[in-house]
Amino acid sequence: MKAVWQRQHVPYASRRALVDEALEIARGTGDQRTIAAVLSEFHRALHGPNAMPEAIAMADELESLAASLADDDIAFQALNLRLLATAALGQWERAQRTATQLAAMAERLRHIEGRRISLSWFVCAAFAQGRFDEAHQLIRELKVLLVNYPAADFEAMMGVLQFVEPWLGGHSALLRTLSERSRSGTTISPVWFAAEAGQLDDVNGLLAALPPTADNNRRFDYLWWNDIVGRTRIALRTGDRALASDLLDMLIPFADGHAQMGAVCFLGTGHFHLGTLHYVLGDFDAAIASYERAIELHQAMQARPWVAFAQAELAVALEARDAPGDVARANELRDASRAVAEELKLGLILETLDRPGGVLPDD
User: Fold this and answer.
1) For 327-353, how does the pLDDT look when each residue is reduced to its tens digit (9 = 90+)?
2) Whole-model pTM?
3) Distance between CA atoms of 106 and 76, rounded to whole angstroms?
4) With contact defined as beta carbons under 8 Å apart, do 196 and 236 qualify?
5) Which positions ≥6 away from 323 have C-beta within 8 Å?
6) Do residues 123 and 99 lie in contact, with contact meaning Cβ atoms separated by under 8 Å?
7) Which position among 40, 179, 215, 307 has the lowest Cβ density within 10 Å, counted as fewest Cβ atoms?
8) Do residues 316 and 354 touch, judged by C-beta distance below 8 A?
9) Residues 228 and 216 sit within 8 Å (Cβ to Cβ)
């Protein structure tokens, strides 16, 4: 499908038109395999959060086609698409079940790509839940499985899979190195890493060299959440309220989803990052409501690092608002967050806990 190879080069609207045209032609043939072939490419052409509700329906249709045709490959494509969509939409338990089904099918069929996708998800889930030792063991299994994988693709995938632990760990030196190594690219990541590493003098220049914030909604691709999270963290680190305001309008429609990069990296719930933007803008009531919702969602998925992170940010926001009872509640949240952060060695969260309420990191 033309929209697939154009996904990094043309706007979402153009890719959307191509996908709709391809589906219309496929359905016009009445051939089930042709329809399945087009549906299987949907997530590669349209991977942004705006397309995920539709992806669920397409996964269901693929599942029906697989049953009708008794075709294991189509069944695999249905599970793959459902995993990506349920993860992005925040349907964590359903995503877990889908990954387990995918792993069982891949094992039965000796399907390497199916094993890669399911193993990557289990790594993602382990990191999200703070099971770091298990995550590293799964990565070792993944490396054995992918010994013949193209080197560049393998390194890129490993980088995304393993990013969360050093980020939450607050490893500034490593983040600084990652930033300097990746500055020739066009993603937000090197600017984000520089901001987290305290290289604030570099941030404005690096940011100016990238496409504007609004370009993310023009593309609506696989990197949409990465861009939103990276720029949100930059807004917090630099106190850039204009950037925070632009991001707020973009994030609100997708706040109920997860900041998810495919099936390989969980970067918190949308409400967590919404809370950060409200905090930067000084709307502490809205920040508190968003962080409270984030805590609920993180608790439901047993994501201990992210519960602790949201508790830390909520404590800071409560102190900033300073309404009756806020400080006492903030102290309780700080104690709970610190216990997990110290246990799991989450330096970024410990740094957050040391930030006084109402103060941005660069103040």
Assistant:
1) 999 999 999 999 999 999 999 999 999
2) 0.92
3) 8
4) no
5) none
6) no
7) 215
8) no
9) yes
